[in-house]
Amino acid sequence: MLLRDHAKTDRRDSARLFATAARRYWLQVFPAAWATKRELLGRAEAIPDPLLRQDAISAHRDKGSNCEGLAAFAVLAPPSRRREVAACLVAYQLMLDYLDCVSERPTEDPLANGTHLHRAFAVALDPQASHHNYYELAPQRDDGGYLVALIEACRAPLQAFPSLAAAREPLLRQARLCGESQALNHAQRFVPLERLHEWAERAAAEAGAEGQLEWWEMIGAAAASSLSVGALLALAATPGQTSEDAVAVEAAYYPWASGLNALLDSLVDLDEDPDGASHLRRYPSLEEGAGRLGVIAGQARTRVARLPGGEWHEAILAAMGGLYLAHPEAWQRDRAQVSRAVLDGLGPLARPALSVHLLRRRGKGSRAVVAALRRPSADEIQRPG
Q1: CB 237 within 8 Å of CB 294
Q2: Could you tell me which residues come within 8 angstroms of residue 334 by beta carbon, excluding any fewer than 6 positions away?
Q3: Measured between alpha carbons, how far is 8 from 301 in angstroms, rounded to an integer?
Q4: Which one, out of 18, 194, 351, 364, has a CA that is 20 to 30 A from the CA of 242?
């Protein structure tokens, strides 16, 4: 699988590509994603422990669009495998968001508890792995088998994926990085800052990105995202892929595209996250944050577009960006500059993707987003007429 030079597509080609990707998603992927999501919601509602049940339902209610967004990677798989890939990805993302909630509950040793809980990530991507006692250190444990159900829903189809062996090593590496970063993120108050810096430096070196990303961009964003897993599972479902192909896909998505994914989530949640938990507030100012996210978006687009079939990867990246930028919270006056920078960095497919997400929100906040897009930016105001 050879890399190709990135070339900008003209508007007509971009519109045609986006329309084709949208048809694949809404007609072939979304129905499978919705069915899996609905089935797992039933399991969540039956959890015996009330706090764990609340965490599981919250992952469905408050973060449900995350799993629908990750399922978009199924458009990259062969038509006969798209439903299976969509089901895997929905289960994986629901598991990530569920454990994100569970990890926030007080416990004697947050880091050890998070480490135990997040072993689930690797097991969900390895059909041969044995289950662990995930809740061993958690204060609430009676989930009625819900976490195991999420894991099995994710890994059940994997054995039949023709290129799973080629993707296995990068998949398990991403699961390890995600588990470690999630555990550290939830235990930050109890972990020396030096340890967080050291982890981020090792992770950046492993990805060949030494000195290119801030520590929170690595540990709080890039490694904590599921975006790379989505791309790798689509590759695993495609015949004829090699381990070199899988490594190339992983390198294209991690850490730039995956980092953008988590940073945009932080942008939308800026008012809800406390200062110590907000990745975006770690920048000295939102102006600097806008510059960084613009760079990260541009780097992400360049890298995924160089892959074979790069236009499809570029469309999915734009769709991910549009999913977050369709939230009116992303366009409040103090952060509109960040959203503009990301929109520009994602290229010509970003605006049609944003339009689709605005339509799907059925007007919820759409007027505020459209009004913000029509307002001139600070650069445009200062530019001579």
Answers
A1: no
A2: 286
A3: 11
A4: 18
Confidence band, pLDDT 50/70/90 cuts, at residue 28: very high
Question: Quick one: angle between helices 336-345 and 286-305, nearest 10?
Answer: 20
Q: How far apart are CA 106 and CA 6, in angstroms?
A: 48
d(CA 85, CA 75): 9
Position 369 scores a pLDDT of: 86
Q: Which residue has the tokens 């000195």?
A: 211
The whole-number pLDDT of residue 10 equals 53
Mean pLDDT value across the chain: 91
Q: Which residue has the higher pLDDT, 86 or 360?
A: 86
Q: What pTM was estimated for this model as a whole?
A: 0.92
DSSP 26: I
For domain 11-366, give the CATH number. Answer: 1.10.600
Tell me the C-alpha distance between 64 and 58, whole Å.
Answer: 9
CB atoms closer than 10 angstroms to residue 291: 15
**How confident is the model at residue 376, as a pLDDT?**
61
Give the contacts of 375 (CB within 8 A, at least 6 positions apart).
336
Residue ranges of alpha helices (H) inside the chain are 11-24, 30-45, 50-70, 82-103, 110-117, 120-124, 146-155, 164-186, 193-206, 215-216, 227-236, 243-253, 256-268, 286-305, 310-325, 336-345, 350-360, 366-374, 378-382
Lowest mean pLDDT: which of 68-82, 213-227, 253-267, 354-368? 354-368
Among 99, 100, 95, which Cα is nearest to 70's?
Answer: 95
